[in-house]
Hints:
Blueprint: H1 2-13, E1 32-36, E2 43-52, E3 55-60, E4 63-68, E5 73-75, E6 89-94, H2 95-100, H3 102-112, E7 116-120, E8 126-132, H4 133-136, E9 140-149, H5 151-159, E10 165-168, H6 174-182, E11 194-206, E12 214-216, H7 217-223, E13 242-246, H8 251-261, E14 272-274, H9 277-286, E15 290-295, E16 303-304, E17 306-308, E18 314-315, H10 319-323, E19 330-337, H11 344-353, H12 359-364, E20 374-375, H13 382-394, H14 398-410, E21 413-421, H15 431-444, E22 451-458, H16 465-487, E23 494-500, H17 513-519, E24 521-527
Parallel strand pairs: 6-9, 6-10, 12-17, 13-14, 13-15, 22-23
Antiparallel strand pairs: 1-2, 1-5, 2-3, 3-4, 7-8, 8-9, 10-19, 11-15, 11-16, 11-19, 17-18, 20-21, 21-24, 22-24
Helix pairs in contact: 13-14
Amino acid sequence: xxxxxxxxxxxxxxxxxxxxxxxxxxxxxxxxxxxxxxxxxxxxxxxxxxxxxxxxxxxxxxxxxxxxxxxxxxxxxxxxxxxxxxxxxxxxxxxxxxxxxxxxxxxxxxxxxxxxxxxxxxxxxxxxxxxxxxxxxxxxxxxxxxxxxxxxxxxxxxxxxxxxxxxxxxxxxxxxxxxxxxxxxxxxxxxxxxxxxxxxxxxxxxxxxxxxxxxxxxxxxxxxxxxxxxxxxxxxxxxxxxxxxxxxxxxxxxxxxxxxxxxxxxxxxxxxxxxxxxxxxxxxxxxxxxxxxxxxxxxxxxxxxxxxxxxxxxxxxxxxxxxxxxxxxxxxxxxxxxxxxxxxxxxxxxxxxxxxxxxxxxxxxxxxxxxxxxxxxxxxxxxxxxxxxxxxxxxxxxxxxxxxxxxxxxxxxxxxxxxxxxxxxxxxxxxxxxxxxxxxxxxxxxxxxxxxxxxxxxxxxxxxxxxxxxxxxxxxxxxxxxxxxxxxxxxxxxxxxxxxxxxxxxxxxxxxxxxxxxxxxxxxxxxxxxxx
Length: 532
């Protein structure tokens, strides 16, 4: 398949009008600029001297330094500007995806074609990946221009056809989907046009030296509304809290603040406003009194804080809780395309981005891929301890028997991170479930003969206890039947069963739709006889 695609790319590349002398600046005044790499290893400020041969020359106290343009993004009025860039495929949207993931994803995509991606940065927020055949020694087979702006721009660019692919850190809205459908773009939520490529946790973080390990939702509300101003008020040192927030027009700001306050946002002005996750990370690294929120991929030297919601359920921002989507500040990262405006190059990249092959690249970029993890459910597990404590809430009646039965069953199984979710009252798997099902089948194909798998259903607490238990079983059975239909004879080595425990063992509070959605799930438990 890769060979055919490379031939297709070679054929079309001849027609591409990539501007000659791409990295030849039009003008640039001698003044201060900032050069930053997307991985945070370079953050240099100095006086712009010259741009030559894809290299910035910057005057610093250490002398004139030469920095490759392929490694950094230039910020500042003195940054050189370049001629307009055209490419085979334009990708527009969220800077969290464009800056944090796309450079490595393009490199991995090129490698899957036995090519090399030469990545340059025409201007701040842009990267151009030129794919060169034969490991970098052949012909150019395609170019991809990634413009990192915001989520809204992704759908605007798809609507006016200035981009083939939109990248976002949120799902498309109904209004955006309807506008694109009316323009002939097709159903934007169909599997061929909406792709979940990774998950990301919005992490609340502090300086690594800060002793505060855990914050409740009420404490966070106090900090980000200005009512709590000293770390001693939350069990820390007697030092003033430096609150770092993101721009109020950013998706990260909307997501975090709506989690804390809903629609009633406080008038509090934080001590610092950061333009993006990377800047927040830099501040947290240097300021011992700072607290801020940023994407999982941008933590670097900062220390993540465990969050405790209003029901007392702890949320730790680790990879397993992100993959199961039980961490309440998790979000999905998407790629979207129109049905009527996607060519062979764009299509092959889209297919690569959701493949198992891309998982390691996504993980390397700091995001959380959709690959499957396995976790023990033994007595030492924090979740098990919380569930054991919850038995007392149900006392000794029928509900207590259900909870005890669940704890007894857990002893025989590990849990996989694959988790299927449903809308209220529905047994229909959501959009991510379709992709996870294929990954689960591929994962189980290599399991030892005799492996036992159980699909375990749970619900929110809306409705009667026994009705919820029966709904949980129905959902587990629906998943099992669909897995069997999709797998055909590929899982003859695995015995599969179902059970359901209804509303017991909530992963989130049932007081909001967000929490109830997290609790409507089917987990996948695998017998401990399978080697980890």
